[in-house]
UniProtKB/TrEMBL annotation, chains A, B:
This is Ribosomal RNA small subunit methyltransferase E. Its EC number is 2.1.1.193. It comes from Merismopedia glauca CCAP 1448/3. It is an enzyme of class 2 (transferase). Residues 70-228 form the Ribosomal RNA small subunit methyltransferase E methyltransferase domain. One of its GO terms (biological process) is rRNA base methylation. Keywords: Cytoplasm, Methyltransferase, rRNA processing, S-adenosyl-L-methionine, Transferase. CDD domains: RsmE-like. InterPro entries: Alpha/beta_knot_MTases, PUA-like_sf, RsmE, RsmE_MTase_dom, RsmE_PUA-like, tRNA_m1G_MTases_N. SUPFAM superfamilies: alpha/beta knot (SSF75217), PUA domain-like (SSF88697). PANTHER family: 16S RRNA (URACIL(1498)-N(3))-METHYLTRANSFERASE (PTHR30027:SF3), RIBOSOMAL RNA SMALL SUBUNIT METHYLTRANSFERASE E (PTHR30027). GO terms for molecular function: rRNA (uridine-N3-)-methyltransferase activity.
């Protein structure tokens, strides 16, 4: 049986009960159309989920759930902000299992997103985590300059996607490494400048290709995340 | 140097000149802002491209271009029409190299798209082929019933994506086959019925998974096409 899902903050759980915000009540009763006595799943966004039963003013925790749909390695996407379509990137990459999205300002991306945008992206990540049946809500980090992002990323394996040129395909690289935590940087419309790619290489990022065709700034992260998620799921033989 | 691209019909080429429609003139002069004497690329949508120079009332073909960005195997996507977002599926899958998209009506997809919708999807496929620098414009076929689509698909390798269950991952299957032409079927919201999956298996479709998380009807075809395109590009060592 399919059960609805709701992400809550860990502090909302007290003595085996869940205390909801007014917005969450509205969502449960009006949007999901649940009734007192109905069962649904709550997730704390940090990896834990519970089967719960809706009461008049709270929900009773019945049992913890140990399904595991998270990728066994952390994946950080470092994304130069495209002019449009970042909502869709956040949504699809969350479904595909991304751990963290770090928006960056690059030479060809001038816009510094408003705090409203960040709130919006975090809400989309939460909704997409619920709908795709994840246990963890990915973190949308505050935007930083590209150089700061490149210099502070501590993933074991680091890639930068370059649209033209003769770099090995991302899938080739993924198949030739022992997969650890991965960070991958993708540019916006117009791609990276040569200087940006060189800086990334200096910080240990390997340049990779996503294929012979030119992908839009919306498609490229979804494609990269598809290849990374599939490759990571295959290493554990859990796919 | 980056050159603009325009898809034309093969019959528009006569004696090394290209005769444009009024809409194409408008596009070249007003949208792309080209001027007489400017060079750009025309593609006949069937695999041939030429460097051309804009004249007052036509364009002169200067030389044929033999860049090759097409996948070396044909890929057919059989897609149950989602309620929303099919524009984005057509656009992204075109960028990723799809050969043919066959929209199907399934048990959980009732809507029969209008001819306006088909015209729109074909225009999107043409624009996306131009922008992603493909030589071929993928064919958007007229919608048919799922059973007809399953029974008439003649690709050597056939997959059907199933959202839950214990099927091997698409990438596992792609890595274990000698890759020939591929057809892949993906459901809409709610997925396929059990009967539909069984019918597909009867027609030689292998059930596959796209991972442990639940993908939306928009994300699933883009993810599948990302995995197929990368796997096909790798077989020829041209990636």
């Amino acid at each position: 049986m399919y059960l609805q899902r709701l992400a809550i903050a860990p502090a909302q759980i007290q003595n085996n009960s869940v205390i909801f915000t007014p917005e969450q009540y509205h969502y449960l009763y009006r949007v999901l159309r649940l009734q007192t006595g109905d069962r649904f799943i709550i997730m704390d966004g940090l990896g834990k989920s519970w089967l719960t039963q809706l009461q008049e003013n709270s929900a009773q925790i019945l049992e913890s759930i140990d399904t595991q749909t998270e990728l066994p390695r952390a994946v950080t996407l470092i994304l130069a902000l495209p002019k449009n379509g970042f909502d869709e990137v956040v949504r699809a990459c969350t479904e595909l299992g991304v751990s963290r999205i770090l928006p960056v300002m690059s030479d060809r991306t001038l816009l510094n997103p408003s705090s409203q945008k960040l709130i919006r992206w975090r809400r989309i990540a939460q909704e997409a985590a619920e709908q795709s049946e994840r246990q963890v809500v990915p973190t949308i980090l505050d935007p930083v300059d590209l150089t700061k992002a490149l210099s502070t990323t501590d993933a074991k394996i680091k890639y930068i996607c370059v649209a033209r040129g003769n770099n090995p395909h991302l899938l080739t690289r993924l198949q030739s490494e022992r997969l650890e935590d991965i960070a991958l940087a993708i540019g916006s419309e117009g791609g990276w400048t040569i200087q940006e790619v060189e800086t990334a290489i200096d910080y240990g990022f390997q340049p990779v290709s996503l294929g012979n065709r030119i992908l839009r700034a919306i498609t490229a992260p979804i494609t990269a995340m598809s290849l990374i998620a599939a490759s990571i799921e295959l290493i554990n033989g859990n796919a």
